[in-house]
Amino acid sequence: MNISIILAAGEGTRMKSKIPKVLHRICGRPMLEYVLRASNKANIEKNCVIVGHLADMVKDEFKDWDIAFRTQPMGEEYPYGTGYAVMQAMDYIEDNSNVVILYGDTPLIRDETIKKLIDYHEENNYDGTVLTAHLEDPTGYGRIIRDQKGHILKIVEHKDATEEELNIKEINSGIYCFKGKDLKDALGKITNDNAQGEYYITDVITILKEEGKRVGAYVIEDSNEIHGVNSRVQLAFCERIMRNRINYRHMENGVTIINPENTYIEPDVIIGKDSIIYPGAIVAGRTIIGEDCIIGENCRIENSKIGKGVKIYSSTITESTVDDGCTIGPYAHLRPNSHLGKNIRIGNFVEVKNSTIGDNSKAGHLAYIGDADVGKNVNIGCGVVFVNYNGRSKSRSLVEDNAFIGSNANLVAPVVVKKWGYVAAGSTITEDVGEGCLSIARAKQVNKDGWVERKGLKERE
Ligand code: UD1
Ligand code: CA
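Above: inputs. Below: predicted complex with calcium ion.
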């Protein structure tokens, strides 16, 4: 069996944040979630997360996940270090399992890499295997010390390294695979006799080696994967890599992304072939977009389902469903629980909330459609307001098929406009409109001829 221990206890001082580092988001999801996803996809059956600083916030965020937590005591009076963190999971480690050590703040690690590490570890029958990388600038990282034959001897921390060791460009990623029993035995032997006074997990490698165990090193192909996040600058760095990974996946699946550097798609989004995404679009949550759509510049679409051939320009859509062939925007706002049928046109400055609208209906300009059920082939004129709130409670309106609501009308809910009902422009409708009926609810026009002359207004200047 494969199990993981994911370290996420550190304070993350350089983030200067009220929230734990591993809850900071990358492409909309907490960093730690990416590590858990990669671990699960790499056939790791059980994950144990070591929490410490603001532990409860981390536990709460992941309460629906099938993971074990161990809490590392934090504070001046307690020991510290990656080795001490792993020790917290001593009871969790099974003798016969492969134990993979991962980090909540290293979100770019890929499942394929974890798999390859485990395979390499098993194929060579190693007791401990380190994932290493070659870096142009190895500053700060532990260095991999190999003997003349190229076998790994030990890992030396930057702060403990000699001049000569500091020149080594092969570094320790901090990710390892151990045999459970060997890890447990070695953890019992590590000390904090080093420059930082910490218990180093890296010492497990030295101990295994000293005891004549088999230790290997697997060199990663893409060293980007091991970037850790210690600051907001590094957070943005990792975000950019993750953003490109997601965008490249969609492009490879047949989606056009005009400028992937400026398009923000969260990891669970699904987009159909031949859809085109324009710059500045944010597609978030569990949004599904069909084929042949245009997602125009600066759209924000969150947890919504968009059908095929839908065109959306500079608009915001939240928790709503849009069926095939609709055109939305620019500057429209679909708020939660709205459902547009097919071939609907929602134009500029139209807001829709908690409403259904039937096929082929139109609201071209400046309208508020709230708490309404609108039928098919309905025309909602410019400036129409569904008056849904009386200061205390909300009521629904019903507008049946083929109705026509003239410009600047108010429909005061609860109210019904029946099939083929016509509402004259400027009307304030408080009573139901019958089938095929024209309702005019406004003051009758009075024309006073010669009025301006009589009042002497022409001399006003
Ligand atoms: C560690 C490695 C180093 C490697 C580097 C890769 C050790 C001693 N060194 O150094 O060889 O090159 O990672 O990034 O392991 N953590 C806890 N509890 C603790 C201490 C740390 O949960 O008591 C967590 C931190 O939150 C952090 C991670 O472990 O996410 C790494 O700890 P850190 O002290 O930053 O290790 P490095 O100095 O980076
Ligand atoms: Ca450290």
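The two ends are 93 Å apart (CA to CA).
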